[in-house]
Design a protein that fits this description.
Elements lengths: L10 H9 L16 H8 L2 H11 L16 E4 L16 E4 L1 H6 L6 H21 L1
Antiparallel strand pairs: 1-2
Bound molecules: zinc ion.
The site of zinc ion (ZN) has 8 residues, from helix 4.
Length: 131
């Protein structure tokens, strides 16, 4: 059995993940640009593999844009390297086929950002009602 290389976050990653405060999701845009290599490393990490598998669990694996079942994978709605704080958040994930994933460029759709933040805000509200 080959052992997967353990993913070690580089210092800026570490700092950032520590500073994420889910109660204050307004600080949402990091102008930091991680290197492509660092982005790729994340996709090999246990953190991502776990997130991805949990997201796929129990779902009908088809593309949310076109319905195709061809090479469906879990995609980040917001670019990973800019929205590092949402890297494992289920609201930022979607199932895309190979084609649609390729078509999608790495730009930031602010409607999606607003949508995700609204959902998170609602969750937070509902949690406070329950207390
Ligand atoms: Zn598709």
């Amino acid at each position: 059995m080959s052992k997967r290389k353990k993913y070690k976050p580089t210092p800026p990653f570490k700092q950032l993940s520590k500073s994420i405060d889910w109660k204050q999701p307004f600080n949402d845009y990091y102008p930091l640009k991680y290197s492509v290599r660092e982005g790729h490393e994340f996709y090999r990490s246990d953190e991502w593999v776990k997130t991805r598998d949990e997201f796929k669990e129990g779902k009908d694996l088809k593309c949310c844009k076109c319905g195709s079942r061809d090479h469906v994978c879990v995609d980040h709605k917001l670019p990973l390297r800019r929205f590092w704080q949402y890297r494992t958040h289920p609201y930022n994930l979607q199932l895309l086929c190979h084609k649609c994933n390729k078509k999608k460029s790495n730009y930031t759709d602010y409607n999606i950002l607003r949508e995700i933040k609204d959902k998170i805000r609602l969750d937070t509200l509902q949690q406070s009602w329950r207390v």
